Amino acid sequence: MLAFENVQPVQTRYQKKPVSYQVDMIAQTLRQIKDFSGSMLVASTGLGKTVVAVHVALHLRDEDVIDNVMIIGPKSVRSNWQREMREAGLYCEYFVRQAFDKANSKQDSSLEDFQEIQKSLDQQRWLLIIDESHEFRNRFKHDLFNMKKQPSERQAFIRLREFCQKGQENLKVLLLTGSPYARDIDNINNQLFLLPHTAESQALLPDYVDDARAWTVRNASEFVQLPVASQLTTPHVAKYYGQQEGQDIYIKFGESCRYIPKVILHTITFPLIFATELTDAILNGCFDLDSRNPMFREVLKRVVKVAWVTSPSLFKES
User: Are residues 146 and 205 in the same domain?
Assistant: First the structure.
């Protein structure tokens, strides 16, 4: 039985002890994994997602829930993750995310290791950590040169879905990101799709409906209400966990203090040159392409608008 209501430090040589807000986030993440086998943590850069993830893994191993850790993430941070896991005494398999979109193991030999792990999922228990999960915000392929009403599913999603289905009893999933949302709500839902499908379903016979138990939201505000979601922002940490020193606020990390930067955003409005002329040109279709593909036309319009508003001086010179 898992008992994560009050998280106590795990006896380990891992030197990075969690600070107060991280302790709370670890406890919340563990509760979500206990109840739903998965969790998605959205945290601003610099708040310590890696530290939280390592301690989550340590607690799961200490409670005899997992045997090993698998991480899918960017190539640039592979050595960092491997070092953190090694210092914590955790066995870790690291896969670069681009490998999962390859056609087969001939294009990326690491897929052979992944397939071997998948074959033994009924014998070993894993925590799957997907770092920078926003890189999986697009589930379907969109090709400007071959637009389809129903584009094919990315190979990465096919592989990971099969992996999660095979490891229903022996797999826990943790998603980490600082920026889950880019264009539309599908960005978030595509990432949530990678969590174990343990949501309540409205379908009459959910076991016979594809993806009936996948986690989804209708708008961004619903995300933080999901029982598998956690969000941690710098303003929240500063307000509830910060310590005051004069006019400054800092967070204590061991023996060092990290100060919260004071950033004030201002909106600046400025007139665009040739506003009337370019507006008329865009509305009258002067930048349309002779193509049946509507996306081509929209892309060109977007390029024109971006160039117009971001480089007005260069636009004027040309």
Answer: yes
The boundaries of the domain holding residue 132 are: 20-232
Token code pair at residue 27: 């406890």
Same domain, 52 and 187: yes
Specify the pTM: 0.81
Q: What angle do CA 96, 102, 103 make, to 5 degrees?
A: 155
**Position 25 in a domain:** yes
Please count the structural domains in the chain: 2
Contacts 24+ apart (CB under 8 A), 108-111: none
Cα 221-227-229 angle, rounded to 5 deg: 60
Residue 310 belongs to some domain of the structure: yes
Q: Tens of pLDDT along 53-64?
A: 999 999 999 999
Q: Please state at what angle helix 294-310 crosses helix 275-283, rounded to 10 degrees.
A: 180
Within a domain: residue 146?
yes
Would you list the DSSP string of 26-89?
A: HHHHHHHHHHHSEEEEEE-TTS-HHHHHHHHHHHHHHTTS-SEEEEEE-GGGHHHHHHHHHHTT
- Measured between alpha carbons, how far is 260 from 107 in angstroms, rounded to an integer? 45
